[in-house]
């Protein structure tokens, strides 16, 4: 099983669907036949309902998705018609609900108690540092391979196991290509491939360009 930890949001258009790095990675992994679950928070609202239903339809479990009674589920909106860059990926924009649910360390610890058997734990680059520490502890307890995504040019913010994978996440719109790469990588590791071989499998599977692969290669 693959567990992906990160922020969850909803995209309204052009096609309504879960948005954000974490759900996109989980969906990509599930598309490759892996069992995937997400750990995150959504509002206790109709948008949150739609989000978890869409995850289920994509083959992604939501047993560890917590419902927030105070903060609404973040919603991404398409760029305005007069946007100077109409082809930009709206997932790279700030969510429309800045006061949305925030993932805390306690949320991660609680969520992972529902998912005790997993082989890979992916931590998205929007996870707060305090929650990252809980992810590291959870991966070590489960004996899972840890995959940490960090923004380019930044050092890893927590102490990691020696065998952990660190990938530089792009800070520009890539139409989900990086999420597809990470999902394929996690699926290959979950299937028993060694990290280096799994990364080769993933880059070949998603057509990730050589230059990008060098930038994002496991540390």
Describe the protein.
The protein has 219 residues and is α/β, with parallel strands linked by helices. The chain has a single domain, classed as 3-Layer(aba) Sandwich (UDP-N-acetylmuramoyl-L-alanine:D-glutamate ligase), CATH 3.40.1190. The chain has 7 helices and 9 strands, in the order E-E-E-H-E-H-E-E-H-E-H-E-E-H-H-H. It has helices at residues 21-31, 46-57, 105-113, 129-142, 177-190, 195-206, 210-216, and strands at 2-5, 9-11, 17-19, 36-43, 60-68, 75-76, 120-123, 145-150, 165-168. Strands 5-4-1-7-8-9 form a 6-stranded parallel beta sheet, sandwiched between helices. Strands 3-2-6 form a 3-stranded mixed beta sheet. Strand 2 and strand 3 form a beta hairpin. Helix 3 runs parallel beside helix 4 (129-142). The two termini are 23 Å apart. The model is unreliable at 89-98 (pLDDT under 50).
List the helices and strands and how they pair.
Blueprint: E1 2-5, E2 9-11, E3 17-19, H1 21-31, E4 36-43, H2 46-57, E5 60-68, E6 75-76, H3 105-113, E7 120-123, H4 129-142, E8 145-150, E9 165-168, H5 177-190, H6 195-206, H7 210-216
Parallel strand pairs: 1-4, 1-7, 2-6, 4-5, 7-8, 8-9
Antiparallel strand pairs: 2-3
Helix pairs in contact: 1-5, 3-4, 5-6
């Amino acid at each position: 099983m693959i567990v992906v930890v990160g922020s969850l949001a909803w995209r309204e258009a052009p096609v309504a669907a879960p948005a954000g790095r974490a759900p996109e990675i989980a969906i990509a992994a599930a598309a490759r036949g892996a069992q995937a679950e997400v750990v995150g928070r959504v509002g206790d609202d109709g948008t949150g309902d739609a989000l978890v239903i869409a995850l289920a339809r994509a083959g992604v479990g939501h047993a560890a998705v917590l419902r927030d009674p105070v903060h609404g589920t973040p919603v991404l909106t398409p760029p305005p018609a007069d946007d100077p860059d109409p082809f930009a990926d709206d997932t790279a924009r700030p969510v429309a609900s800045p006061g949305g649910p925030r993932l805390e360390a306690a949320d991660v610890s609680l969520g992972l108690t529902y998912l005790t058997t997993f082989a890979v734990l992916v931590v998205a680059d929007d996870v707060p540092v305090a929650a990252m520490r809980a992810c590291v502890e959870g991966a070590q307890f489960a004996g899972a391979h840890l995959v940490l995504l960090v923004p380019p040019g930044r050092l890893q913010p927590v102490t990691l196991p020696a065998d952990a994978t660190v990938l530089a996440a792009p800070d520009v719109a890539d139409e989900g290509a990086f999420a597809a790469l990470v999902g394929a990588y996690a699926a290959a590791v979950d299937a028993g491939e060694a990290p280096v071989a799994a990364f080769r499998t993933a880059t070949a599977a998603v057509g990730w360009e050589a230059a990008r692969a060098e930038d994002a290669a496991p540390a």
